[in-house]
C-alpha cells in the first residue's frame, strides 16, 4: 500500500476532540444556537442556482475524479458484469467517470437537477478514452427530492415481483435485453449519493432517501458520502447564512447541510435500509502555500436494501 493510501485510510484526528474544541470556542457559538425555520424555506433543490454554479465552474480545474471510491466502496470493483449504478446528483461526472473507467461492462444511470451539470458531465465522459462510454452512460434530468423516480428505472409490477422473488441469475442481464425491455430496466444494483443529500432541504431528505430505496433491487447497496458535522466548511459560514439547524445557504443560492452519525442513521434506517457501515472520516490536510492546516470531516456510509 502506498503512503497516500495509508494516509487516506487513517483517521488523522479524533472527531470527539474536534467537537469539544469547536463547541468551547465562543466565536463559533452561533452555529449551535436554536433556529426558527422560515416559512419561505424552499421545498426542493434550487435547479437554477445549481445551473449557475456549474456554469461558473465549467473549467477543467474544477473537475477531479473521485478515485477514493474504490477504496471506500470496493463492491464497485468486484460487482458482476452489466451491474447497474444510479448516480444521484452526478454533478460534472467526477463520480460517474471513474466508475465507467473501472468496469468495462458497468452501466451508469446519472441524474441531476441541473441541466448545466448534465451537459458538462456528458461532455467530459464522451471526451474520455473510456470504452463504450457513450452507450454505458445514461444521463437524465431529475429532482429526486420532489419527484418519484421515473418508472423506466423500475415499474410498480417489477418492484412487487422483485420483493417476492429476487432474480436468481444475479447480474447476468446484458445491454441488448435492457434495450428490448418494454416496462423498465429492472432496478439498480447500486445507488451512489456522493455530496448530494446535503444540498436537499432537511425536511425533504427522508422522502429523497426513500426514493433511492425504491429503485434498488433487494440486496442492493447505497453508497453515501457527504459533509460531516464540524467540517471546516461549516465553520466558514457566517451567522446570517444559516437557514436551519446545521443548514446553510451560500451566496450563490446553493445549500449545504452537515450530518451527524445519528441523523444519517435515522434517515436511512427509517425508510427500510440496513446499516452496513457508518462513520466519520477525519482528514487533516495542509495548504502549504498559506501554511494553514485544515480539518476535514466527511461522513461515510454504506446501506443495504433487505432481501
Number of domains: 1
CATH topology: Rossmann fold
Arithmetic mean of pLDDT: 85
The share of residues in helices is 25-40%
Unreliable residue runs: 1-9, 165-180
Rg, nearest Å = 20 Å
Ends distance: 35 Å
Structural class: alpha/beta
The SSE order reads: HHHHHEHEHHEHHEHEHEEEHEE
What does this structure look like?
By secondary structure, the protein is an alpha/beta fold. It has one domain (3-25, 46-304): Vaccinia Virus protein VP39 (Rossmann fold, 3-Layer(aba) Sandwich). 32% of the residues lie in helices and 23% in strands. The protein is built from 13 helices and ten strands. The chain has helices at 3-9, 15-23, 47-56, 69-72, 75-78, 96-102, 115-127, 133-136, 156-164, 175-180, 205-215, 232-235, 261-269; strands at 84-88, 107-112, 137-141, 188-194, 216-227, 242-244, 247-249, 255-257, 274-287, 292-304. The strands form two sheets. A seven-stranded mixed β-sheet has the order 3-2-1-4-5-10-9. Strand 1, helix 6 and strand 2 (107-112) form a beta-alpha-beta unit. Helix 3 (47-56) packs across helix 7. It is globular, with a radius of gyration of 20 Å. It starts with a helix and ends with a strand. The model is unreliable at 1-9 and 165-180 (pLDDT under 50). InterPro entries: METTL2/6/8-like (IPR026113), SAM-dependent_MTases_sf (IPR029063). Keywords: Methyltransferase, Transferase. One of its GO terms (biological process) is methylation. Pfam families: Methyltransf_23 (PF13489). S-adenosyl-L-methionine-dependent methyltransferase.
